[in-house]
Specification:
425 residues, mainly alpha, two-stranded antiparallel sheet, 76% helix, globular
């Protein structure tokens, strides 16, 4: 599961990078007007405008809810039976992620204590797991498996922090009737999860829950996270139950094949297929189905819609002199590595956490640098932070510059330091 997850993330990061480059080229080409007009195209769901938004908001509130649904599923998987399932395993990445969120936010806030820029303190807190894992993949076998696992667990905890920040600090006015409807649907989802209903029913109720959250004023991506967290993780059949049910069916299947009873054999195969599907939980099936779509369609489309910022001299000059841009850049490039390394050191020295075999301080520092690749969630929070398009563009330019710098520095740092450690060993 971990290998498939990492492979999908790293492959998707290539397409994400290509979409980012395409957005920047398009937004700064003679056809830039068509780029910005495209995302303002109005779209509505159904004949009656139950849900009516422009294309950009459908991507932000609709498709990105799928991204956060996968994040919620990843969090649940890691907490229930993954790297965050025990305190000993989870302590170091949790503490490191806290440092990687707190220090960047403080650095940003120190430069933007008041004024319109003060709302952007959440931007440099986020890490883009796809790009970070993609850089690690470029280093190949130099990277020990323990370092990959640490990076993955840290990024998932970082995602939890980003979700909480969005939920509590970037939510506009609340509609109580819609929120009450969302609460009722959530209670129904929890009841359905306990009854182990078919996945189609869970998805249908989940759609209405998302729509209610969207109408309530709470950011719709929170609905995606909640859906992931409440998705049933227990399968319909345990392995031993599958064996008990499958043994007589297999005997019948063999007898039907020998007697050339084609129709009966096909019916038995259908039952066996249903039994095998029953050993997968709804959470596992949703993650396996949605993860490739999110990596290869949702995130590249989001990057294409969000990364296109004008890069003319007139627009870049104020961006480079802006405290918003400086706060975002320093928060991601300096605050991330300082916070992750310092908090990890304190956790290990105080015996709160231990280091896994193969994990070194050079590796932790390298992961801290790569965590400065904010990109997806950082761009997302940039759009939530400011109403002024000029400030949003400034923040996005800083996110792109910081992500490029952190990815490049992290790659060469890990390439050199891990080779040096290997030679000393």
């Amino acid at each position: 599961m971990l290998e498939r997850f990492v492979h999908t993330e790293t492959s998707g990061s290539v397409l994400l990078f290509a979409a980012t480059v395409a957005a920047l080229i398009w937004a700064n080409s003679p056809w830039s007007a068509s780029y910005f007009a495209l995302w303002k195209l109005p779209l509505q769901l159904g004949r009656r405008p139950l849900l009516s938004m422009d294309l950009h908001h459908w991507i932000d509130d609709g498709l990105m809810a799928l991204f956060f649904l996968v994040v919620g599923l990843e969090i649940k998987r890691e907490v229930v039976k993954g790297e965050l399932s025990s305190f000993r395993q989870a302590a170091l990445p949790i503490v490191a992620a806290l440092g990687g969120m707190i220090l960047p936010a403080l650095l940003y806030f120190a430069l933007n204590r008041s004024g319109l820029g003060a709302r952007g303190w959440g931007i440099p807190m986020a890490t883009d797991i796809g790009f970070a894992m993609g850089v690690l993949a470029l280093l190949g076998k130099r990277i020990p498996s323990s370092l990959r696992v640490f990076m993955l667990a840290l990024a998932i905890v970082d995602d939890v922090g980003a979700i909480l920040v969005i939920a509590f600090f970037y939510t506009p006015t609340i509609s109580l009737p819609a929120l009450a409807a969302a609460g009722g649907l959530l209670a129904l989802l929890i009841a359905l999860a306990m009854r182990r209903v078919p996945i189609s029913i869970y998805v249908l109720v989940g759609f209405f829950f998302w729509a209610a959250v969207l109408r309530s004023g709470v950011h719709a991506t929170i609905a995606g996270v909640i859906l992931g967290l409440v998705a049933p993780i227990r399968p319909k059949f345990r392995p031993e139950e599958l064996v008990e049910s499958a043994e007589p069916l297999m005997r019948n299947f063999r007898a039907q094949i020998l007697s050339k009873e084609k129709l009966s054999a096909e019916a038995t195969l259908t039952v066996l297929d249903q039994l095998l599907r029953g050993t997968d939980s709804i959470a596992e099936r949703l993650e396996r189905t949605l993860h490739p779509w999110v990596c290869f369609l949702v995130l590249p489309l989001f990057a294409l819609a969000s990364a296109g910022v004008p890069l003319s001299t007139e627009q870049l000059k104020p961006a480079f002199s802006s405290p918003i841009a400086l706060g975002v850049f320093l928060g991601l490039v300096v605050g991330k590595v300082a916070g992750i390394t310092a908090f990890s050191f304190l956790a290990v020295k105080s015996k709160v956490a231990g280091m896994a075999d193969g994990l070194t301080w050079a590796g932790i520092t390298g992961v801290g640098i790569l965590a400065g690749v904010g990109f997806t969630v950082a761009l997302f929070i940039s759009g939530l932070s400011f109403a002024d398009e000029a400030l949003v563009a400034t923040a996005k330019v800083a996110v792109l510059a910081a992500s490029l710098a952190a990815g490049t520095i992290g790659y060469f740092y890990l390439r050199f330091s891990l080779r040096s450690n290997s030679e000393r060993t």
